[in-house]
Prior knowledge:
Helix content is 47%, strand content 13%. It is α/β, with parallel strands linked by helices and 450 residues long. It folds into 3 domains: 3-127, Response regulator (Rossmann fold, 3-Layer(aba) Sandwich); 155-321, P-loop containing nucleotide triphosphate hydrolases (Rossmann fold, 3-Layer(aba) Sandwich); 325-445, Helicase, Ruva Protein, domain 3 (Orthogonal Bundle). It has a 5-stranded parallel beta sheet, with helices on both faces. Strands 7-8-11-6-12 form a 5-stranded parallel beta sheet. The chain has a two-stranded antiparallel sheet with strand order 9-10. Helix 6 runs parallel beside helix 7 (188-197), helix 13 crosses helix 15 and helix 18 crosses helix 19 (435-445). It starts with a strand and ends in a 5-residue tail after the last helix.
Amino acid sequence: MPTVLIIDDNAAVAIALDVLFSLHEIDAVRAASPEEGLQLLERHAIDLVVQDMNFTADTTSGEEGGALFHAIRARYPDLPVILLTAWTQLDAAVDLIKSGAADYLAKPWDDRRLIASVQNLLELGQANRALRQRVVAEQRQRHALEHDFDLRGMVWQDPATERVVHLACQVARADVPVLISGPNGSGKERIAAIVQANSQVAGGPFVVLNCGAVPVELIEAELFGAEAGAYTGITRARDGKFDAADGGTLFLDEIGNLPLAGQMKLLRVLETGRFERLGSNRERQVKVRVISASNADLPAMIKAGTFREDLFYRLNVIELRLPPLAQRLLDILVLARYFLGGEKTLDAQAQATLLAHGWPGNVRELKNVMQRASLLTPGPVIGAQETGLPLAGVASPRAPQDGAATEPDRDSVTAALARAHGVVAQAAQELGLSRQALYRRMERLGIARG
């Protein structure tokens, strides 16, 4: 049961409070003077204090109660204190409320109001203790991660991100494929770098290929290499990404863009470590740890016949799901400050604006917004106007929190194109997309080019 400390020199008042609390399953400890009360605080686990304002006969100023409150506050800053006052000490009680006292009640008190106040404060105290314990546990886990693993400079604050980072470190040393899912610009490549840096092949090469940025007709040559004359314009043999990543890690971003022919070859490499260059019949052998990433709905693509089910299960031995930035609210401000590099700060309205924005382009969009705001702000403090985002309270609706629509919709795309005066590359950068990805999205949404 919770325990309340009653500090009152009037024995009748202390006993009455003790009985009242016992009727509501609250333990009570009594002290007749400020000195005794402070001693009991040192010896007992106290959840709340109810104290009088005067302890000397014929004293009505409330100064003794004020001194006691400040002494408790100095030693136990989170301990709630309720003041019992006579009307003559009302002004002093109000001043103490401003200094952090939880409540004040006049004598004679109303039992129902007193019990309601005590119970509310006890529940609040329990919630605060649970929150502090959780924060301490999260800090301890973060320090352990930072001490035991190479986190590649990852910046985060949100527990959702920490869960992904923790799992990435946990599976890093296992020699199995890893699939990182999440929207564009959310930080999938950084998670892949953490997996590689803590893997058994950390000393090997870390090769990155964005499958969405390579033309379909060249993707197989990029992955597996090509012999001279294998296609128009190639005059000598060239290595592919698997050759370059031999003995290390190959990160395949936007794996959903890989054509079916390339998917079949990739499946064979994952199963046997063998492949053939484009235009060659000679098999090559490599040892490569494959990490893939996708912002697409791969199960839906399997149903549509555009992605091989057997490849999906081969890639998806371990899946790391990175939520969109809109679902990692605690990451927004720490990332914003990181991108500013300590050169400038954000005022309260700018912070509120960042938190209210839906971030369809995720971390990449946030980085671009901070870079632009830093350039456009002559002074050391960035205001909401300089962010270029809709102001908090006037902004467009937040992105859905269930993750169902984490990519830019038609309105977001057309607005970005308008701000960029039709320059697709600039609009794509703002939205956190590659130019090719934005062109594909424009085509799906029926937005004409130019």
